[in-house]
Amino acid sequence: MNRHLFVSKGRDDIPRWSEAFPGARQCSPQQVRAQAGAGDHVWIMTDIEDWPGLTERLVQRGAILVALSHQPNATQAFQALNAGARGYAHALSAPALLRQVALVTVNQGLWVWPELLRQVVGSTYRALGGASQANTQALACLTARERDVALAVAAGNSNKEVARKLEITERTVKAHLGAVFRKLRVRDRMQLILTLSGQEASVTS
Amino acid sequence: MNRHLFVSKGRDDIPRWSEAFPGARQCSPQQVRAQAGAGDHVWIMTDIEDWPGLTERLVQRGAILVALSHQPNATQAFQALNAGARGYAHALSAPALLRQVALVTVNQGLWVWPELLRQVVGSTYRALGGASQANTQALACLTARERDVALAVAAGNSNKEVARKLEITERTVKAHLGAVFRKLRVRDRMQLILTLSGQEASVTS
DNA sequence: TTGTTACCTGTCCTTCGGTCCAATACTTTT
DNA sequence: AAAAGTATTGGACCGAAGGACAGGTAACAA
Questions:
Q1: A92-139 pLDDT, tens per residue?
Q2: CATH, residue B162
Q3: Ranges for the HTH luxR-type domain (chains A, B) (predicted)?
């Protein structure tokens, strides 16, 4: 594969794109939706109808997505990354830069428009202060080991994963977990996570 | 320049590093502080005294920093990126992977340990308030019916209960749920509930 | 010593969860 | 009219989850 597909409405930016990648083709959203597959490099403009959705879909198919914007901004950058895009750059980037972006993204890297990168990472780091005020109330009546298991399970791990992490048998995880269920009076891991996150399970039966 | 310098306390991981980069040298924090300059590729272990500070300083000098950890986690990843590192990977990554990281970072790309990438991007997106709540963002790409099922499941209901509530077959619940998993790129209902409640699954394997 | 508790493991079994292979019908888009 | 998306169901399959039952060690208190 390894084709380069440019998804845009108009065709104004095509020259520098095709200069960057001689074999590149311009496509409509419908065309990429139909054609793009694993290994393809898809460059998508953010002025396209539902570009995050399309991005997400193509990423699922194994394509490498790079979002391009005429006015790069932080929110859109994260929308792109959140949708699975591996790059976010200015639409009028120089061919050399585009090739650099391709090189990075094809190697599992992320490429974010430099001016945005610094700004975004900085503000985010500050914003992410305290988050883990887990329910100490519920955890109080558990033994140390049960707490370990409960927290690991509540983080979304499977029994097998918990077992690996705590270096015990999957069977032991089940044993502890059973005790946790009894003590906290929940019926399964779903209820456990709801309890520990302070929410309430709304189960009718 | 373009030297490769590894900063670590011990020397246990040196073999695979020097296998990845034949000319690589292992340094103490004091040595890199004195020697490293523009264009150098510096790989720093996160068990080093004040590694964020050292990272920051070397980045200012124009070096390319990659942080390496034995237990990659989101907070540390942020610390690294915030300090100006361009990469964050597992300390025991295979030589081929290390070379890939080098290729990406030298081209202005970011390289984040894959398991963490989604987590980091997701939490960042929310922290920025790009979408006030993660769940609305996630639910947007679902159909009405899929939303019904996803919410019922996230409330802690079993498939059977959801089926009763929505007056459909358990089989249909599974079908919708499968679609939800695909679209939200989660592997099971545990991850789903974590996603919808705005938390992040910290699953390592 | 005995009793209790935490912790760890095993086997057997049932149910649940998730995915694969379909299929039918309805609506919307092209 | 043709194509695509959505909603619904079926069956088969397999692994995960959880309970029942039955052990084992180690620490600590009565």
A1: 777 777 888 888 888 888 888 776 776 666 555 554 543 333 455 667
A2: 1.10.10.10
A3: 135-200
